[in-house]
Amino acid sequence: MKVRTKIILVTGSLALIILGMFLVTWWVTNNQKNDGAIINMAGRQRMLSQKMTRELLEGVSADDGIEREKAFNASANSMRVFNTTLNSLMQGGRSPCLWRWITRKVFPAPPCRVRHCSFFRMFNLFGRSTGEKWRG
């Protein structure tokens, strides 16, 4: 083989390797574009479960009827945010960003392989208290 042919083969091989690396990197980053928002929403679910517990305990231990009703209303709002976010994380769709119902983040539906994880079992437990059931 001539030296020129060898140089062309080596250069072409390197170009294909670089192109392959670029395509794999692009594919991986494209698959991870919603990961940060999903992790933030899952962390908010943890915080909301603690907040609901605190608000319910404040309502139960309140001496004044006005304070009791205020705590239970706050807990109901937290439950609504929790349920809406949980549905959007599991089925895809809109979820409120922070506490504003106007601004919403749209999540894609999760892949089928995720539907049998403990996340969905947790939804069924939460759904028992709200009367809903996941049928995925």
From TrEMBL:
Places the protein is found: Membrane
Main localization of the protein described in the UniProt heading: membrane
Transmembrane spans: 7-28
GO cellular component entries: membrane
Membrane topology: Multi-pass membrane protein
Coiled-coil segments on the chain, per record: none
Classification via InterPro entries: NarX-like_N
Keyword Transmembrane helix included in the entry's annotation: yes
Pfam families: PilJ
Sequence ranges assigned to domain NarX-like N-terminal in this UniProt record: 27-96
Keyword flag Transmembrane helix: yes
Alphabetical UniProt keywords: Membrane, Transmembrane, Transmembrane helix
Protein's recorded name: NarX-like N-terminal domain-containing protein
